[in-house]
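Page 42, continued from yesterday. The earlier attempt failed because a stray header line got pasted into the input along with the sequence. Redoing it now with the clean sequence only.
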Amino acid sequence: MSEKVEFELVSPERLLVSEAVEMVVVPGAEGDFGVLAGHAATVSSIRPGVLAVFENGNVTSRVFLSGGFAEVTPERCTVLADDAAALEDMNRAEIEKSIADLRDDVNAARDDAEKNAAEKALAIAEAKIAALDSSMY
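This time it went through. Structure tokens are written below.
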């Protein structure tokens, strides 16, 4: 039996996952990185993307993260997510509608703050569609 890493996924509302797993692949700001037991201590920001949990060499869950931070020690991986949703719970039609609405919001923004907020939300929605279309993991 391979060594396990303690994994916790936390959203602002609650603890979503707390379990020992074989490996976690995190969508880091500088690229995806895998966390196994014994990983070097690391802190990374998270870009919008898919976090994958592995057991026995297979993906057991895929969660879309809109952003956040990951803290890794040799024994533990803690992900503090801005927002998290299981891929199988995401609705493509709703996301596509949101993208159309957000594009309108970007164009209708009255100032830089509004435009930046709309562009950030649009980027997250577009990353959700990319996650649904991806066959990776």
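Notes: The mean pLDDT is 95.
Reminder to self: strip header lines before submitting.
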